Amino acid sequence: MCVANVLVTTAVFMLLPYQMQLLEHFGHQQLESALAVSLFAVGMFLPGPFNAHMVDAFSRKTVSQLSVLLFFVSCIIMEFSRLEWLFMLLRIFQGACFGTFQMSLGSTLVNDLTFSEQRTSADYFYTWFGLFGLPFGIMTGHVVLIHFGPHVLFLAIVCSLLLAWMLLFLLRVPFRAPVKTPLLSTDRFLFIHSFVLMVNLFPVAMIPTMYLGCLQQVQPMLMMLYGLIGGLLVHRILFSHTDPRADAVSGLLMILTSSVMILNPAGYDFMKTAFLLMGVGVSWFCSRLLLYFLKLSGHCQRGTLQQTYILVLITGNCLGFFLGYVVPNVFILTIIVTVFSLFFYIFVAHKWFMRKNVRSFRFRET
Question: What single string gives the DSSP state of each residue in 163-194?
Fold first, then answer.
């Protein structure tokens, strides 16, 4: 399931350079193209009110497979169609497919197929596998587009989706009796009461794609990927028994430091180090916020909170990609956003969470 997640997420972010190049053929400027590509975030919210009803009325595995299959079909239509209005609709439709995929697999099957004492660990790693797809997908998309062209990139995207579908096909999911959920609900969609955490997570989620959108270079993406992976590994060693604020504050300070380094570069190796630190910082902060979301969950609310986290994260990524083309000085904006997130976390989010926390598990259990 984790591998299927990273394959689909990689395909989603490989689509960014592919679709930007496709829109340039339509005669659009980069600003218009970035806005069109960001419509993906709108589509992610459309099936949300029907999430709980879908996985109750239909097989959870079928919903997951069908969402990937429809995403695959939409990519094929996009490749052979040159209608602008159809491109916009397909972009929204792809967002809806991805949102349904994450709900049916990450927020439902991952929890249903693991033992209760292992669900925090399963949720944690599932979400992180998906996050790795962000820099890896954009980096792969740029490399393939530059060296092999858009048609080879299209093949890479559809092959990634097909492989994910095949992995889902191999899953063995036991039958579950329906519980007759209402047609419309916020279950497995949005946990409104986590609004404070959403406000804290959303600006940080914008930061990586703001840089990746405006720089469009492979090396920063590669270094950020190394930082995300390294940050996750070090995080489990350094912060398993520390104050819960340590990793979040350290991560935000690392993002702030890397932003200042990028604003005042002192050489190519200096820039690479800055993006490595940024990857580590993002991984530490997002890891802590993920655990905060999970600890807010009451009975049968874990899937809803995980889906909320993923929606906020990907929506922030899409808006950051758009801002990377709109804002003339992304580096200053990143510093402002990071400082806001730091003070908001220290003086608002953490204190609010300590009052609302309904679970007592520690990070070591993940």
Answer: HHHHHHHT------------SS-STTT--GGG
Q: How does pLDDT run across 324-345, given as a tens digit for each residue?
A: 888 888 888 999 999 999 999 9
- Number of neighbours of residue 178 by Cβ within 10 angstroms: 10
Distances (CA, A) of 271 to 103, 209, 264, 274, 276: 37, 16, 9, 5, 9
- Give me the sign of the Cα torsion angle 311, 314, 317, 321: negative
Structure tokens at 326: 């709109």
Distance between CA atoms of residues 314 and 175, nearest Å: 31
Terminal-to-terminal C-alpha distance of the chain = 17
Q: How far apart are CA 137 and CA 127, in angstroms?
A: 16
Distance of CA 333 to the CA centre of its chain: 21
User: For the segment 65-106, what is each residue's pLDDT rounded down to a tens digit?
Assistant: 999 999 999 999 998 887 888 988 999 999 999 999 999 998
d(CA 137, CA 132): 8
| Residue whose structure tokens are 């996009």 | 78
Given a cut of 50, whether residue 365 has pLDDT beyond it is no
